[in-house]
Write a structure and sequence with these properties.
Length: 350
């Protein structure tokens, strides 16, 4: 069965004993890990009891598909239901899970709960269909947080620390967080540690002191790495931007804005203006932490090459919308193409 969003939190903390296996999947890897861990704790009471928890990889089960059924039927040495945690599950395991679920009674449950963790699975995924169609299995989708779910995560996490948060501070924090649940938890924990045990309420000043604008800073890193020709930095920043929930179109537009600013400054300098005079025309002004890199890029790029890069990005964005092709791949290819043609580009770090 496919769990509705409103039922997920209750289920992961108190799973139905008749459920044989749970698939936790989605683009938010942090949330996948968090919900899988909650299921393990709900059944085994911990994450590290070797008598009640067994971890398997997808490769283990591909090598020995019968092991899945064997582990599901194995009793715990000290009593209580066991958990079998399967990492990196994918469609190659669909047949093994279909066989397991077919052997088990929809009402009887098993000696162990199988918790399978997977990346983002499309609607046509064979593994996803197995779990969604079986009465004795559950599929939990983990999507990147939006403003509503972020607010809930913020409130619940701070409540665990005995803290509340001012409405303005909550809005500020939501604006600064990306979509990855694991990063969000880390940032909220950092605020709680910052205010200390004597505090009762988080204010805007606390948020600003602790949390950078994760989504915007990551996109800026992508733009700077692209224009700077730093392939290694681009690879890392682009991966993080997608992990935090940025869409390929949003990433390309962030890079385009950076290139447009460079184009303005480079064009004025080509016409005879000094850098300081040209950069002074920008609104907003260049952030001081990135000023040196921006100036180096503005001096290195020729205006006509920046114009060509901008035209290329626009063409790729239109292709993403028109063809329905894998937008993240088109985006990545375009940015790496531009980075490779950037003045003084550097290969990926080893």
């Amino acid at each position: 069965m496919k769990l509705a969003p409103r039922d997920i939190e209750r289920f992961v903390h108190a799973p139905d004993p008749a459920i044989v296996a749970v698939l936790v999947h989605g683009p938010d890897e942090g949330l996948v890990r968090e919900r899988a861990a909650a299921l393990v704790r709900a059944v085994a009471g911990t994450l590290d009891d070797p008598f009640r928890i067994t971890e398997l990889s997808a490769a283990d089960l591909r090598a020995d598909p019968a092991r899945l059924t064997d582990e599901a039927a194995t009793l715990s040495f000290g009593g209580g239901r066991r958990v079998v945690r399967v990492r990196e599950a994918g469609d190659s395991l669909a047949t093994a899970f279909r066989a397991l679920l077919a052997q088990m009674s929809p009402e009887g449950g098993t000696a162990a709960l199988i918790v399978a963790e997977a990346a983002d699975l499309g609607a046509r995924s064979a593994l996803r269909r197995v779990f969604e169609q079986a009465k004795n299995a559950a599929a939990i989708a983990c999507y990147h947080d939006d403003a509503r779910t972020l607010a809930d995560v913020i409130d619940r996490t701070l409540r665990d620390h005995g803290l509340t948060i001012a409405p303005a501070a909550r809005a500020e924090l939501i604006a600064r967080l990306g979509g990855d649940r694991q990063i969000t938890r880390s940032e909220i924990e950092k605020i709680a540690l910052y205010v200390g045990p004597g505090a009762k309420r988080i204010e805007v000043e606390d948020v600003r002191a602790c949390v950078g604008d994760s989504a915007e800073l990551t996109l800026e890193d992508v733009a700077l790495a692209t224009a700077g020709g730093d392939l290694g930095a681009l690879d890392r920043a682009l991966a993080r931007s997608f992990q935090e929930g940025a869409s390929p179109v949003a990433v390309m537009r962030a890079v385009a804005r950076h290139l447009q600013r460079l184009h303005l400054v480079a064009g004025l300098m080509a016409a005879g203006a000094a850098y300081a005079q040209a950069a002074g025309r920008l609104q907003p002004r260049v952030f001081w932490k990135t000023a040196a890199r921006f100036e180096a890029q503005a001096r290195a790029w020729a205006p006509h090459r920046l114009a060509a890069a901008l035209a290329y990005l626009l063409e790729v964005e239109q292709a993403c919308k028109r063809t329905g092709a894998a937008a993240d791949l088109l985006c990545a290819r375009a940015l790496f193409d531009i980075a490779r043609t950037a003045p003084g580009h550097r290969r990926r770090a080893a």
